[in-house]
Write a structure and sequence with these properties.
By secondary structure, this protein is of the alpha/beta class. The chain is 31% helix and 26% strand. The protein has twelve helices and 23 strands. Strands 1, 2, 3, 4, 5, 6 and 18 form a seven-stranded mixed sheet that branches. The radius of gyration is 24 Å and the shape is globular.
């Protein structure tokens, strides 16, 4: 049977872009559909604009540090409108670059939302396109818990377009998004209250890392209400009244409420049922949320329909941009490059751009003890104040932690909290991916003086 194209990609986010360009490099005809700006969540309303806000939020503390180094700093003031406009301009620029790269790769872009009609047919705009293979890469979307008055809250999607810098912002959520925006908004000068259900933020990270970040956030003036939940939200004129129960039972009045309690695959309206694509249930362990569904795939990103594939957040596995990119390329290699490839989920590094910043790769101490036994591992940990903060006499701590297999000396995990943690752990990740041992670290000469040298100096 003859089709209009060899591959039809639904969604021009990180995964869809990587897959389409890679597939096109093998000489196949590729069409991609996207109803929003090209670039997906990461470029438009995620990693990129967030990191730019992170940079902006660091300047007040840098001004404070500069005084300790002899600089006289005049009074500074944030121009919120200029910041948001500059970020949006950069988003538009990057989106245009991604569109241009698609064109150069020979990929046809259709600026519409696509819907499956059957296993080989997609409805896009006012036309129907047939394809030998279809890839779904539509990402996810922020969801809100079922709380009275929650319609008055915003999500990470809207925070980049706030018309003003709030004096006080409340944040629900203890994950990446809630924690990062708590630090961002505090750095920009807001009063910040973060409400979390458990005792600590960032479930799944190493306990020492979680503790160090949370202590640092509190030290920077963020109020964290632990073991607490929002029960209702009420709008009173131009402010919000937030009722909290649990360890902290009180009413909070704030300008903005940011909900960062989870995301769900963006499968609504895709027509999956028309093409026989199966879903898998994925429950959210948080009160007020319903269970969510994701597209079920095998290790080659193949769905229950042999010619239809799915990658990225729509499968609700490891929801990170580099993972979606890696899976997109692996899919293209497997299906069009005669090179069957399975993307490995082992040793995926990740970072939290909080204040203090954190990055990690491999097993946590708890995971390693569960896998290798209490006596099967060795922990090396260093806590110190970096040299940068000595003259300003600021109470900023860094922690670097290595988890080692006692039997093989192999480095099972590396974790860091402190300035430039992401940049440092990225390099360490290469060594761990290659199977480095603690001896390999020990025989590597450190760069002095630096925080990173602690990684190779711990005894």
């Amino acid at each position: 049977m003859t089709y209009d194209c060899d591959l039809f990609v639904i969604g021009a986010g990180s995964g869809g872009l990587a897959a389409s360009k890679k597939a096109a490099s093998y000489g196949v005809k590729v069409v991609i559909a996207e109803s929003d700006l090209v670039g997906g969540t990461c470029v438009i309303r995620g990693c990129v604009p967030k990191k730019l806000m992170v940079y902006s939020s660091h300047f007040p503390s840098l001004f404070e540090s500069a005084v300790g180094y002899g600089w006289k700093i005049e009074e500074s003031q944030l121009d919120w409108e200029k910041l948001i406009t500059s970020i949006n301009n950069e988003v538009q620029r990057l989106s245009a670059i991604h569109s241009s790269l698609l064109q150069k790769a020979g990929v046809k872009l259709l600026p519409y939302r696509a819907k499956l009609i059957d296993e080989h047919t997609v409805e896009v705009g006012n036309q129907k396109v047939t394809a030998d293979k279809i890839l779904i890469a539509v990402g996810g979307q922020a969801i809100k818990p079922n709380i009275p008055g929650i319609e008055h809250a915003i999500t990470s999607r809207e925070i980049f377009n706030l018309p003003f810098l709030p004096k006080h912002i409340a944040i629900i959520g203890a994950g990446y998004i809630g924690t990062e925006f708590a630090c961002i908004m505090r750095g920009l000068g807001c009063k910040v209250t973060q409400i979390i259900r458990k005792e600590q933020i960032l479930r799944g990270f190493d306990k020492d890392i979680r503790t160090c970040i949370q202590d640092g956030m509190i030290n920077h003036g963020i109020r964290i209400l632990t073991n607490s939940m929002v029960t209702s939200v009420k709008k009173i004129e131009d402010r919000l009244e937030i009722n909290v129960s649990g360890k902290y039972t009180e009413s909070i009045t704030t300008d903005v409420l940011l909900v960062a309690t989870g995301r769900s695959p963006n499968i609504k309206g895709l027509g999956l049922e028309n093409a026989g694509v199966d879903l898998v249930a994925s429950s959210i362990e948080k009160p007020g949320h319903k269970s969510i569904s994701a597209i079920s795939v095998n290790e080659y990103s193949q769905t229950s329909q042999n010619n239809i594939f799915a990658i990225g957040d729509v499968t609700n596995k490891i929801n990170l941009t580099p993972v979606a990119i890696g899976k997109g390329r692996a899919f293209a290699d497997s299906e069009f490059g005669n090179n069957p490839s399975v993307f490995s989920h082992e040793n995926i590094p990740t970072a939290v751009f909080s204040k203090p910043e954190a990055a990690t790769i491999g097993l946590t101490e708890a995971q390693a003890r569960e896998k290798f036994g209490e006596n099967g591992i060795i922990i090396y940990c260093s806590r110190f104040r970096p040299m940068f903060y000595v003259l300003p006499n600021q109470n900023e701590k860094t922690i670097i932690k290595l988890v080692i297999d006692r039997k093989t000396d192999k480095v099972l995990g590396a974790h860091m909290v402190g300035d430039n943690a992401a940049e440092i752990i990225q390099g360490v990740a290469i060594a761990i991916k290659m199977g480095a041992t603690k001896k390999d670290f020990d025989t590597t000469v450190g760069i002095h003086p630096s925080s990173a040298e602690e990684i190779v100096n711990m005894q």
